[in-house]
Every structure is written in structure tokens, then in C-alpha cells.
Design brief:
By secondary structure, the protein is mostly helical. It has five helices and two strands. Strands 1-2 form a two-stranded antiparallel sheet. Helix 1 runs antiparallel to helix 5. The longest helix has 17 residues. It starts with a strand and ends in a 10-residue tail after the last helix.
Length: about 100
Amino acid sequence: METAVLDNRTIELDKDGNLANRDDWNENIAQEFANMEGVGELNERHWIVINFMRKEFDAKGDAPSIRKLTKESGVSTKELYALFPKGPAKKAAKIAGLPKPKGCI
């Protein structure tokens, strides 16, 4: 398994480069992933999406699709792509410490 040094710790990653263990996640790691993914400094709107994704994952066992994100999180499709360019559901899941959503390529 691949590893990365995040938040001054060696963390295991899955085959997609996402956290292998959700319990390793914290806000510092989220920010480090955001920087690595070209998202930059996380703001309140990013955290709405990240927290929504984590809540949905806890309830359903999978990260939500873009459609569900835009319908239920209060963030429009246009804004979602502005916050997480080039693959918002995949990038947001990684930053949220979740596996890649099943519907993502």
C-alpha cells in the first residue's frame, strides 16, 4: 500500500491515493490534500461540501454523487466545479478523507 506524510505522520493511502483509514483524517490533512489537488485554501463553502460528504458517507457507506451534492448540500453545480475544479466529487471525497465515489472514473 502507498503511504504519504500528511500532518507530520505517515499515512496509508488506497490505490486511488485517498486515505485507507478514515480515522486518520483531520482538518489539517484535508487542507494538505486540498493543496495537493490544486484546490487551495479551504473556505466555508468547501467545508459545507466536505461535511455533507462525510455525513452522507456515514449514513450510506458511499460518498454522494455530484447530482446529490448539488441537490442537497446547497452548493450549485457551477459553484461545485469552481470549488473543486476538474472532478469535484472525486476531489471533494479525497479532501474529506473518503474513498473515491463509486460512480467516478
